Amino acid sequence: MKPLIIGDLEVKLPLIQGGMGVGVSLSSLAGAVAFEGGVGVISTAQIGFYRPDFNKNPLEANLKAIEEQVKRAKEIGRGGVIGANIMVAGRNYKEYVTAAVKAGVDLIISGAGLPTELPAYVKDAKVKLAPIVSSEKAAKLLCRMWDKRHHCTPDLVIVEGPMAGGHLGFSKEQLKPFSEKNDEEIRRMMADYDGEIEKIIQVCETYGEKYNKNIPVVVAGGIDSHEKVQHCLNLGASGIQVATPFVATEECDAHPNFKKAYVEATSEDVVILNSPVGMPGRGIRNTFLKNIEEGHRGKIHCRQCLEHCDPATIPYCITDALIRSVQGDVENGLVFCGAEVDKIKKISTVHEVIESLFISE
Question: Rounded to two decimals, what is the model's pTM?
Answer without folding.
Answer: 0.95
